[in-house]
């Protein structure tokens, strides 16, 4: 996307995404109009349609940007020159921290994914599947090495961990007793305990 800026110097696409994210999280995707988004971003409808073809494109990008970040980070952990146990723990903790850091995005996705058309819905599912498969490959690597128990299938272990991650937006509060890193450490430790031989 071009780095065109208006007003405060923030690139227009980022301003639109920030406004859409805030509005989708506060009042829901279906109750947010394009006019509200452009007013909140301080741009015109023409600017929105220059960067995004539709409100649905904005919804797709809200989730896609978080998944791109998480995929890049998972790939880096998976490729690190570290024991598989450390790589898995780092990846398991990271997905918790990055989800909490982008809690509105996560909440919007789980609340509004059904608003995506079939093509975008399929793209998102494929992107999520790629992430989960890379995560599962770490578990399987550890199971083959005998570092992790094979008593529970790797697929079920993945579902167990991501079930916890997907529910963060329903209960985590920034002003609560645990920091994002503390929550991440607890959930990563639970995962590793479940995998001990």
UniProtKB/TrEMBL annotation:
Residues 33-52 bind DNA. It comes from the Bacteria. Keywords: DNA-binding, Repressor, Transcription, Transcription regulation. The keyword Repressor applies. InterPro entries: DNA-bd_HTH_TetR-type_CS, Homeodomain-like_sf, HTH-type_TetR-like_transc_reg, HTH_TetR, KstR2_TetR_C, Tet_transcr_reg_TetR-rel_C_sf. Residues 10-70 form the HTH tetR-type domain. PROSITE patterns: HTH_TETR_1, HTH_TETR_2. Signal peptide: none annotated. This is TetR/AcrR family transcriptional regulator.
């Amino acid at each position: 996307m071009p780095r065109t800026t208006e007003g405060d110097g923030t690139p227009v696409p980022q301003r639109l995404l920030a406004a859409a994210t805030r509005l989708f999280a506060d009042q829901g995707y279906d109750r947010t109009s394009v006019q509200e988004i452009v007013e909140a971003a301080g741009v015109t409808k023409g600017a929105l349609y220059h960067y995004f073809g539709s409100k649905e494109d904005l919804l797709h990008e809200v989730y896609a940007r978080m998944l791109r970040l998480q995929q890049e980070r998972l790939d880096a952990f998976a490729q690190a020159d570290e024991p598989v146990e450390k790589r898995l723990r780092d990846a398991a903790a990271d997905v918790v921290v990055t989800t909490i850091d982008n809690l509105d995005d996560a909440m919007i996705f789980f609340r509004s994914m059904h608003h995506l058309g079939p093509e975008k819905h399929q793209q998102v599912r494929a992107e999520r599947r790629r992430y989960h498969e890379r995560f599962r490959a770490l578990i399987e690597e550890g199971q083959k090495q005998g570092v992790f128990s094979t008593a529970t299938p790797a697929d079920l272990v993945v579902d167990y961990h991501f079930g916890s991650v997907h529910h963060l937006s329903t209960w985590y509060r920034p002003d609560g007793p645990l920091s994002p890193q503390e929550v991440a450490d607890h959930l990563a430790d639970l995962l590793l305990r479940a995998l001990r031989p």
